Amino acid sequence: MANLIRQTTELALHIVRPYVTPDSTVIDATCGNGHDTLALAQMNPAKLYAFDIQEDAIRTTTALLEANGYSKSIAERRIILRCAAHEEMRKYVSSPVNAVLFNLGYLPGGDKEITTKAASTLIAVQAAMELLETDGVICITMYSGHDAGKEEKAALLNFAETLDAKLWHTAYISMPNQKHNPPEILFITRKA
Amino acid sequence: MANLIRQTTELALHIVRPYVTPDSTVIDATCGNGHDTLALAQMNPAKLYAFDIQEDAIRTTTALLEANGYSKSIAERRIILRCAAHEEMRKYVSSPVNAVLFNLGYLPGGDKEITTKAASTLIAVQAAMELLETDGVICITMYSGHDAGKEEKAALLNFAETLDAKLWHTAYISMPNQKHNPPEILFITRKA
Question: Nearest Cβ partner of A1 from B14, B19, B160?
Answer without folding.
Answer: B19
